[in-house]
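Good day; I would like, with your permission, to put a structural problem before you. What I wish to show you is a protein chain and, alongside it, a tokenised description of its three-dimensional fold. Please examine both parts with care and let me know of anything in them that strikes you as inconsistent. Thank you for your consideration; the sequence and its tokens are set out here:

***
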Amino acid sequence: MRFWWVYFAISLSVLIPGVSSLIKNGLKLGIDFTGGSSISWIAPSLTKESIVEAFENQNISVSSVTLQGEMTTITTPPIDRNDYSQVLFKVKDSEGFKELSFDTVGPSLGAELIKKTFYGIAAAASLILLYVAYRFKNFKFGVSAIIAMLHDLFVVLGIFSLLGKYAHVEVDTLFVTALLTILSFSVHDTIVVFDRVREIKKQHAYLTFEEITNRAVVETMARSINNSMTIIFMLLAMYLLGGTTIKWFILALLVGTASGTYSSTFTAAPILVIWERLSKKLR
């Protein structure tokens, strides 16, 4: 733990740009949150301009048109089925055309989803804090685990804020699922380290707390890395070979898994050592 400042500097080098972007730009919200219509077609013969024109002829503004190979994804403000049918009538005879989906989310549902997302994350953090504090009979362990968890949360949020700004990546309900999964993975890895701290403390009470934590980190690091790598390899395969609908969901899990592995060892453990050191000085 002598080089705790290096570990924190590495974390800050990722967190500062991401959090700055998050404060300045926020996240690029998908229609799950903002409300709107999402339309998917296979339309190899249609250009982006012709698609926009077809909608605008029906007085429907187009928020975005994404072309991925032969598949086209269009987002608009909420539109009803009748207006959409008029657009569909104009384009359905184009060569190779096939309608895949048409979904509409109302703005009130989107606002409700944002509220529930915040409630879900707050509830998860509170329950994790109580569980870790109870399990280790020490509030410091619980708070250190929560700080590491928030570290991972803001790493993912910051990176997706930057992706939203520069690559127009939108976040949706799958992203919320990824965040909650990341929280559970993060605290799981941290608990493994803390549990080893507790065991070594029982067996070698003569060691200083810093020595105990160092030994716990060394003994659990190989396990944490091996466990994380199996998950990362699986996620990489899904990212490279999976469909476009889950691409950003998988990327969020990849970033969160890597960050969770790092934070359990190089964020939670140093915070615990520094806190213990300060507590002794204040006694």
